[in-house]
Amino acid sequence: MQPDYDLLIIGGGMVGASLVQALRSLPLRVAVVEASAPGAAHPSFDARGIALAQGSKRIFEGLGLWQALQGEGVTAITRIHVSDRGRFGSTRLSARDEGVEALGYVTEANVLGRVLEKALAEADNTTVLRPARLTGIGTRKEGVSARIDHDGEVLPLSAKLIVAADGGRSAVRALLGEKVLHHGYGQTAVIAYVTTDRPHGGWAYERFTNTGPLALLPCQGARGTAEAAAGDHRWSVVYSVRDEEVEEILALPDEQFLVRLQERFGHRAGRFLSASPRQAYPLVLNFLRDHVRPRVVFIGNAAHAIHPVGGQGFNLGLRDVAALAEVLADAVHRGEDVGARAVLDRYAKWRQPDYLRTLAFTDGLARTFSSSFPPLALARDLALLGMDLLPGAKRLFAAQAMGLLGKQPRLARGLAI
Fold first, then answer.
1. What's the domain count of the chain?
2. How far is the first Cα of the chain from the last one, in angstroms, to the nearest whole number?
3. pLDDT tens-digit profile of 91-133?
4. β-bridge partners, 286
């Protein structure tokens, strides 16, 4: 019997909506199950600053969305300064040295959300069920069945493939009993925007401290908003603190918070003048060992949640999208069942090296630079200095940060899906 859909995407946030856009040109019947109500913002489309790697910019160009993002507001990172607080280790990266126009970009999650929500609404081959949630799932050889609670009505649906793009608290994962590798860092990211008395000049900073990394990213306010008045004096801050310090830091008056931040970061970016309301996000590592199972594939945070050091999280999920879309497009071209295990195994084989490399990169940085063990501190400082002396090592570091290592999907190479 013909299933209701070819693909059932659970989750219409950043990753799920990006996948819909990637699949628009394919002859596939797609449905998205999204918990937020029509007209309501998805919870992930909040006020956070989102770092987009150079590779992600290329993917958004391939998706036909980059021009719209630029119209809403993105800020280019042309130089990055990495340092170890209170020690001698530091290194610098520049877009010019790497032969690119920018090492990455920064935008706001709600800006990205507006662009993706519009694209989702315009996808002709996609049915969006919202507010809706997945309450049951069953797999069999020829397809997968799902029970959906859609605005108070229970819908039994069938599909060739379920794509779990429903985040770190994935309902698909829970219903299938999938276990994740979990590690808590004992750190929480305090997120805010600040303004300084000097322009950012395209610089981004990653400063390692004994409580975790402190990132300062240039982020001009979205066009047409009050925040845009700060121009190039506005920054997105990701301030890692110990879990036991979070409540104290969130409760600080803005003036005292800025004093604390200045003391931790220093004056390289100028003097901090003002701060937005702060938000807190516990930092954890969640990693699903097997990203595919019969008729099911996990992407984005449903498959992996990593430490934000280096701004790799969403970029890793967007590479999932580009690779999965390409594998599915090839399967359609060959006349294959898009949910067949052989198709999904091709996707898993492609993505595994990137997962392991990015996990090692972020987890290694977070652990190594949070340690005060003297021999390790000396070794990391020498490594940072060594990058300036060894162009090959710096180029490798930059390529990882830009998401340009390994096999690149067609979307990241300017080719049609």
1. 1
2. 29
3. 888 999 899 999 999 999 999 999 999 999 999 999 999 999 9
4. 182, 305
Q: Please give the model's pTM, rounded to 2 decimal places.
A: 0.93
Assigned domain for 260 exists: no
Question: Which CATH number goes with the domain that contains 292?
Answer: 3.50.50.60
Rounded Cα distance, 284 and 243, in Å: 12
| Distance separating alpha carbons of residues 77 and 219, to the nearest angstrom | 9
- Does residue 394 belong to any structural domain of this protein? no
Residue 386 has pLDDT above 70, yes or no: no
Radius of gyration of the CA atoms of the chain, in A: 21
**Domain for residue 170, yes or no?**
yes
Angle at 8 between CA 159 and CA 300, to 5 degrees: 135
Helix/strand/coil (H/E/C) assignment for every residue in the chain: CCCCEEEEEECCCHHHHHHHHHCCCCCCCEEEECCCCCCCCCCCCCCCEEEEEHHHHHHHHHHCCHHHHHHHCCEEECEEEEEECCCCCEEEEEHHHHCCCCCEEEEEHHHHHHHHHHHHHHCCCEEEECCEEEEEEEEECCEEEEEEEECCEEEEEEEEEEEECCCCCCHHHHHHCCCEEEEEEEEEEEEEEEEECCCCCCEEEEEEECCEEEEEEECCCCCCCHHHHHHHHEEEEEEEEEHHHHHHHHHCCHHHHHHHHHHHHCCCCCCEEEECCCEEEEEEEEEECCCEECCEEECHHHCEECCCCCCCHHHHHHHHHHHHHHHHHHHHHHCCCCCCHHHHHHHHHHHHHHHHHHHHHHHHHHHHCCCCCHHHHHHHHHHHHHHHHCHHHHHHHHHHHCCCCCCCCHHHHCCCC
Q: Is residue 56 in a domain? A: yes
Are the CB atoms for 8 and 157 separated by under 8 Å? Answer: yes
The neighbouring-strand residues paired with 239 are 190, 214
Nearest-angstrom CA–CA distance, 127 and 320: 22
Q: Rounded mean pLDDT of 340-344? A: 97
Q: Which domain holds residue 164?
A: 5-75+109-182+285-371
Q: For residues 22 and 28, what is the distance between their CA atoms, to the nearest angstrom?
A: 11
| Closest residue by Cα to residue 196 from 219, 214, 222 | 219
38-53 tens-digit pLDDT: 877 777 888 889 999 9
